[in-house]
């Protein structure tokens, strides 16, 4: 008989007794997960962390006695541990949740809807997957990514024909920020698919736009793809690049999920391979799963230069690992090295393997 591995210990922190009960029932229904305790507020949670030493913490944002973000900031400073934010996915909540990711939360998920029974199984599977992923996440990398030194770079040779394509998932919001902030305003166009729900991508793009020299926006359908601009795939819509005469355009669709995602990195990368070919540059960043691997292989086969974030600098070395495994990547680099390497690759070809 196979011996079951040690269960992942979860501490649930939420001011709603109903949410605590529902999350406990969901998590305990999986053989490899167990809720060791629940807390109605961060002050109680602080003592329970000392008592139970959980592997993962689920944390609500708005709670009494201490705000969830204040607690998260103190937790990551004094006792770093994997945190899954349980958020209300609203326009207001998106800004707060993105701030939680900046502070060190690994990922986030919507609060379960108590009045909807249908779809609860898929929600349960999703939260179970996220808890497993959080338990394996590289917490040190999260802190290091937030503290990467900012050095504004210049572009020695501009090429408006090239387009850079980026794919990311878990840990990607901070990785994308670290990738974009050093880049100069005259970079080629950049198209990005980050696994994210509706409401979040617009806020994410707006936050990046205030930090970067490039103009960052949530992509719209049939926009002209211009140098110096970054286009973020909207939540719940696939982003592709298409050609119209001499111009490249964005294209959005509600086609079926690919690799359980919409937007999907594979969809973006496959369109890059088909439409842009050797003028494309591909980057695959931290993330859980295999989305983007097949698309990146197609990009490389079409003549594009491709890069993957290395394991040490990834929060979750899933997507880059899969792309590397199938021979889709020219170079594997640390997150810190990627911006300068991208600039170099814009003006010159890189020896392909």
From TrEMBL:
Its main location: cytoplasm. SMART domains: REC. Pfam families: CheB_methylest, Response_reg. Residues 156-349 form the CheB-type methylesterase domain. Contains a C-terminal catalytic domain, and an N-terminal region which modulates catalytic activity. It is an enzyme of class 3 (hydrolase). Residues 9-126 form the Response regulatory domain. It comes from the Bacteria. The modification 4-aspartylphosphate is found at residue 60. Belongs to the CheB family. One of its GO terms (molecular function) is protein-glutamate methylesterase activity. It catalyses: L-glutaminyl-[protein] + H2O = L-glutamyl-[protein] + NH4(+); [protein]-L-glutamate 5-O-methyl ester + H2O = L-glutamyl-[protein] + methanol + H(+). Phosphorylated by CheA. Phosphorylation of the N-terminal regulatory domain activates the methylesterase activity. InterPro entries: CheB-like, CheB_C, CheY-like_superfamily, Sig_transdc_resp-reg_Me-estase, Sig_transdc_resp-reg_receiver. This is Protein-glutamate methylesterase/protein-glutamine glutaminase. One of its GO terms (cellular component) is cytoplasm. One of its GO terms (biological process) is chemotaxis. CDD domains: CheB_Rec, REC_CheB-like. It is found in: Cytoplasm.
């Amino acid at each position: 008989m196979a011996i079951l591995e040690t269960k992942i210990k979860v501490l649930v922190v939420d001011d709603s007794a109903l949410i605590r009960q529902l999350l406990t029932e969901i998590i305990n229904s999986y053989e490899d997960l167990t809720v060791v305790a629940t807390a109605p507020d961060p002050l109680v949670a602080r003592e329970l962390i000392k008592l139970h030493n959980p592997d993962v913490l689920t944390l609500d944002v708005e709670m009494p006695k201490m705000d969830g973000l204040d607690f998260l900031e103190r937790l990551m400073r004094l006792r770093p541990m994997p945190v899954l934010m349980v958020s209300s996915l609203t326009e207001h909540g998106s800004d707060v949740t993105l701030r939680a990711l900046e502070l060190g939360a690994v990922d986030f998920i919507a609060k379960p809807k108590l009045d909807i029974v249908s779809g609860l199984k898929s929600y349960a599977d999703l939260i179970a997957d996220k808890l497993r992923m959080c338990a394996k996440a590289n917490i040190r990398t999260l802190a290091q990514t937030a503290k990467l030194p900012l050095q504004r770079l210049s572009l020695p040779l501009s090429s408006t024909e090239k387009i850079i394509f980026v794919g990311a998932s878990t840990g990607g919001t901070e990785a994308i920020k670290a990738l974009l902030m050093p880049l100069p305003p005259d970079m080629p166009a950049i198209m990005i698919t980050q696994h994210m729900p509706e409401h979040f991508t617009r806020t994410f793009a707006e936050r990046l736009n205030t930090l970067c020299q490039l103009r960052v926006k949530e992509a719209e359908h049939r926009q002209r793809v211009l140098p110096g601009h970054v286009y973020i795939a909207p939540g719940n819509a696939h982003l592709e690049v298409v050609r119209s005469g001499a111009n490249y355009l964005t294209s959005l669709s509600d086609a079926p999920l690919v690799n359980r995602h919409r937007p999907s990195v594979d969809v973006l990368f496959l369109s890059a391979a088909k439409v842009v070919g050797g003028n494309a540059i591909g980057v695959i960043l931290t993330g859980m799963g295999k989305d983007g691997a097949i698309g990146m292989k197609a990009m490389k086969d079409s003549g594009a230069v491709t890069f993957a974030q290395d394991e040490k600098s990834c929060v979750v070395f899933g997507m880059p690992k899969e792309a590397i495994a199938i021979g889709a990547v020219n170079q594997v680099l640390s997150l810190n090295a990627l911006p300068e390497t991208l600039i170099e690759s814009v003006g010159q070809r890189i020896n392909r393997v």
